[in-house]
Every structure is written in C-alpha cells, then in structure tokens.
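Morning run. Coffee first, then this:
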Amino acid sequence: MDWLNYHHLFYFWVTAKEGSINKASKKLGVGQPTISTLIKTLEESLEQNLFNRKNRALALTEVGKVVFDYASQIFALGNELLEVVKDGTFSQRVHVHFGVLDSVPKHLVQSLILSAQKAGPCVVSILEGDEEYLFRELQAHRVDLVVSNFPASIGDKKQFFSRFLAKHSVAIYGAKIFQSLKRKFPSSLQGQPFIMPSLHSKFRHDLNHFFQTNNINVNTIIETQDTSIQKLLGIQGMGLIPLPEFAGVELVKEKKLFKLGTLQKVTEDFWLVSSPRKFQNPIARNLMENFNWKA
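And here it is:
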C-alpha cells in the first residue's frame, strides 16, 4: 500500500467510536451504504478485516484495535493543528494526556502539570478514574502517562514502564472529638470509625495488614478512593482518616484535623507509568526522564 485514504480512515474511526454503522450514519449525516462501502474499501487497501461482523453487531478485530489507536492519534493531531492555526502564534503545542487515580494527591498533579508546561508549549488534559480503566487507556495510547500509587510493571513489563517518584509515611487524622485517641496510640484506634480507601487499592491492603498485625479491629463506615472526600468527611467528624503526612499538614495548621499518630512501616508510594509506543509524546518522555516531586 503506497498511500492511506484518510477520508476512509475517518469513517472507520467514527464508526468504531459510535459502535455501529447506524449511529455513525446519524453522527456524520451520511447514508449507511456509503459508510459500509468506504470501510470495506479501507479494509481492502489494508488487506485486513477491521471489524468482526455478526448479526449487524460490530466488534473490532485485533488489527482493527491497532488501526483505531493510530487513527485516534492522527485525528487528535489534526485537531491540534487547527488550534495552532486559529491561535495565530503558529507555535507547536503538544497535547499531553495524564491519567490520574482518585487517590493521588492534587498537589502531585499540580506539580506534574507545571513541569509539563516548563518542558515545552503544551495543552494538558486530565483523565481521572480507577486503575483498571486508566491502565487500559494507557495501553491503548489514549493517555500518555498515569500517576499511580503502585507500580504497574508488576504484571507485564513489556506493556508498562513504572518510575518511582516518592515514598511518604502515613498518619491517622481526626476531628477534635477524637483528640483523646493520641494517648495509647495506635491501640486506642480499637473499634473507632474509619473512612478508608477502597478494598482494591494497595494502600488499603497495607492498612489492613497493619491493623491485623497489631490486633486492632477498626470500624470501617465509608470507603472511597477520593482523598478530597475523605478529608471533608474527616473534618465533619464522621470518622478517622489515614493520609500521607504531607497531605495533613495544612489541615492540622488550620486545626480542621488533628494528627493522632504515625503508622509504623506504612507508607504510600507514588509512581509515574508509561506504555511503550512507536511515536512518543515529547512532553511525556521528558517527564518520565526528568520529573521530580517533593511534597
């Protein structure tokens, strides 16, 4: 194949995003037979089937998934081109996409954004979600980097590369009504209400291990990965919250929360994760090599 028809590729891409030719037809304002013909022409030029067709349902083949990922990058770059031309400065701005777990401190995300902007002219997009969703998006090259509190390279090291950023000790915080628990900490936590991270997180696993090892049974009343929600509920006195110590400093200064004590040998670690790709985002590459974070 000597050339690629981007018009045909666009029709395939929209159909794949919409999930059916019928929906793509409504989206594009083009008849279904036309879309079917153009997708078929694209498949013939590539000499590959891009969809598995069964009872009018469409599912991407393995080759189709690869073509869809490349098409997504191509048309995202096209949108950037339009933005640059409209801008009038004609400076090349790279679009970099970050995936961020809900449990990652906003201070870390802010620092990453500032570092990206210092690395070069760029537009930054933030996608929040759980680990399964974000690492799937990373592997599909729909995000460039994921900020995580565990290394993704535990699984298939060929799919991901993880770079360690920082390790922080963890303390227990509570509203004023819990101040007396400072005495005899951590045994004083026995039976107390807790606002905990979700069960699937490594941080929750480490907390559970600490409590089990020290024969402490806590009363988990709320589970959430969002540290902002944890803090709000903790300030209202609904329960105790475990946080990296740097995350509680300002709240302690403002006397909104009180530090009850540090959990020995419990830390929360933070990582920057990328996925190998043929065309690396220059801003993402720079951050993977040079980004440093101090809370």
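The mean pLDDT is 88. Good start to the day.
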